[in-house]
Amino acid sequence: MRRMSRRDWAIRTLQAELLSKAGDQVIAVLGLAYKQDTHSIKNSPSLALLGHLHQFRVRLFDPVVPASSAGHPRSFGAGSELEACEGADALSVMTPWKQFSGLDANRAAGCMRGRVVLDPYAVLDAKAWRTAGFNYHSLGVAA
Q: What is the pTM of this model?
């Protein structure tokens, strides 16, 4: 049961914070690989999440896995982490690539529409993202 709870955490949190509201939400997803430093997408948490987001627009970025691998009908493959954030209502960091930790919260705040951040692996600097006005969520940490 606990594993299922962790696997579904991202979609449950997005549903509570954003997806239950009306509108054409855009979700930025960073990371398609199963884990950092690999190109494998087998058992990828990102693909599991994207399977629940077919009706939403998504902006995808992974340093080694092409966005086309996601097979999402409303996806846009971004060229960088920041480009993925452009116009997004929420940001979800689904693979703990080290380079994602350098994403600047203030720059993201300047280009995102919304202020929801899901960071299950605690890759981002939580304090910096909260200070920039984001509703930051990390797995196992109270919001």
A: 0.92
pLDDT in tens, 37-84: 998 999 999 999 999 999 999 999 999 999 999 999 999 999 999 999
Whole-number Å distance between alpha carbons of 25 and 21: 9
Distance CA 7, CA 1 (A): 10
Q: DSSP for the chain?
A: -HHHHHHTHHHHHHIIIIITSSS--EEEEE--SSSTT----TT-HHHHHHTT-TTSEEEEE-SSS-GGGG--TTEEE-SSHHHHHTT-SEEEE-S--GGGGG--HHHHHHH-S--EEE-TT--S-HHHHHHTT-EEEBTTB--
If we measure between CA atoms, which residue out of 88, 68, 78 comes closest to residue 26? 88
The top-level CATH class assigned to 2-137 is alpha beta
Q: Are 97 and 44 in contact (CB under 8 A)?
A: no
- What's the rounded Cα separation, in Å, for the pair 12 and 1? 15
Q: What angle do CA 69, 71, 76 make, to 5 degrees?
A: 85
